[in-house]
Amino acid sequence: MTQTHGILRGLAGGAALLVVTACSPTVPDSAVGFDRYDGYQERREAVLEGRVAPTTIGPPPTVTGAPLSATGPLDATDLEARRANSGVDPVQASPSNPAPQIVENAAGISDENDFNAVSNTRSIEGDAALIAQNRAQYQVIAPEALPTRPGTNTPNIVAYALQTNNPKGAPIYRRSAFASENRHLRNCASFASADLAQEAFLANGGPERDRQNLDPDGDGFACSWDPAPFRAVRN
Asked: CA of 190: how far to CAs of 179, 184, 186, 213, 223, in Å?
């Protein structure tokens, strides 16, 4: 009885094992690109024995496309040309480009240095007549006396320079031997210019008198004032 019971238990366990195996999913091969290990082993032995030619991998397909230089950034020469041309692409030299337009004579540009152009519009006789016309219209204006300043008693130092002829530093008028050099320099320093000092000198009795010690050498010119520039205009 005990033996029969054990047999039944064994059969029941085997049936349960069959049911579990039937319900379990199929496990895929764990290695990608390989079949079962026994198949791999068979192919390997066949290759080693020379019964099957080894599998070779061919070269990759050729990829065609535009070169990188066609789509890459501009080089330094093109960038510099764009910056110098307000951002506009520079003109590339090509035989297919149209011929440039030639400007014969732009407005405002003289052609006096072009002998051919001048010879077609002017002649030697015409230039001679033009010179004679300019000479006929030339006028020489003689110097006249300087007008007096209206509404003022300031002496005219220009008229004084033209009325005198003695050079600067040549003594003409008598001066005191006790004139102080320091007083002369101090009084001249009070004027903004030598012209103003000469005007004050003439207004106070100069050139015969020198009350402010502005002309210690007696040449008639105060504080190193020089009449030469005014006389040069007359000459």
From this structure: 18, 10, 7, 12, 11
Please state the φ and ψ torsions of residue 75, each to the nearest 5 degrees. Answer: -80, 180
User: Is the previous residue joined to 90 through a cis bond, with omega within 30 degrees of 0?
Assistant: no
Q: Which of 118, 162, 170, 129 is nearest to 144 (CA)?
A: 162
| Interatomic CA distance for residues 168 and 177, integer angstroms | 20
- What the block records as the tokens of 76 is 């330094």
Separation of alpha carbons 117 and 3, rounded Å: 141
Helix (H, G, I), strand (E, B), or coil: what is residue 26?
coil
Which residue is it, tokens 């091969």?
A: 29
pLDDT value of position 197: 94
pTM check: above 0.70: no
**pLDDT 10s digits, 210-219:** 999 999 999 9
Check the CA dihedral 221-194-198-212 and report its sign: negative
- Euclidean distance between the first and the last CA atom of the chain, given in angstroms as a whole number: 168
